[in-house]
Amino acid sequence: MTSKNEVKKEGRIMHFIETKIAPLAIKMSQQIHLKSIMSAFLSCMPFMIIGSFALILWEPPVDYSTLASTNILYGFFKGWSNFAAFADPALNLIFSYTLGSLSFYVAIGVSYFLSKNYKLKPYLPVAVTGMVFFMLNTSFIEDGLSTSYFDGTGLFAAMLVSILSTEFYRVLIENKVGALKCRMEFPPHWQIHLKRLCL
User: Fold this and answer.
1) Within the chain, which residues score under 70 in pLDDT?
2) Residue 81 and which of 49, 127, 137, 171 are 20 to 30 A apart at CA?
3) Do the beta carbons of residue 67 and residue 46 sit within 8 Å?
4) Beta strands in the chain (DSSP E)
5) How many domains does the structure of the chain reveal?
6) Largest CA distance in the chain
7) Mean pLDDT for the chain?
8) Which residues form the domain of 26?
């Protein structure tokens, strides 16, 4: 049974949440950059789920060699380890292309949704974001390119790159930087594409 003091305390907490925290949360949810980040993460959810299942199958939680052979779970974890060793190339590939590339997908998603919120055609901002992401998050190693920052470690850089490159593109478009002024007449739909390609 709750006392009157507990009811009053709960009422004060709810009043504080409704008057102070809720309006701030509503304002933050309407902020265009945060809305784009949220939409990007939501659109990446299938990649995260598939990558998580691949990771669970790839790495058994218990090393069967640490269990006694008389343990009831010994055979289960030994079979799991044998399956993981057999399916290692496929599971590694699935993980690398899903959770292992999460930062890249988030960068593309943030740029896409931010472009849509600004009512821009998203293909050039997304392409620019992809190129800048590759320039910043890859490095040359002996066998090719290192993609060690494509997973969760590169998420902050991915969000920053996508916001900055899309904002820079928007400023250029709004100020008509690089707009073509030709003496020849082009069809209207060609003029739009040429204008954007000249940035």
Assistant:
1) 1-7, 178-186, 188, 190-199
2) 49
3) no
4) 139-141, 144-146
5) 2
6) 87
7) 84
8) 1-30
Q: Quick one: CA dihedral 28, 32, 33, 36, positive or negative?
A: positive
Residues 107, 129 contacting (CB under 8 angstroms): yes
In terms of domains, do 38 and 9 share one?
Answer: no
pLDDT 10s digits, 138-158 = 887 777 778 888 888 889 999
Examine the domain organization and report whether 170 and 81 are in the same domain: yes
Dihedral in degrees, nearest 10, Cα atoms 9, 15, 17, 22: 170
Q: What is the pTM of this model?
A: 0.77
Q: Say if strands 139-141 and 144-146 run parallel, antiparallel, or are unpaired.
A: antiparallel
Residues 6 and 25 in one domain: yes
Same domain, 25 and 40: no
152 and 141, same structural domain?
yes
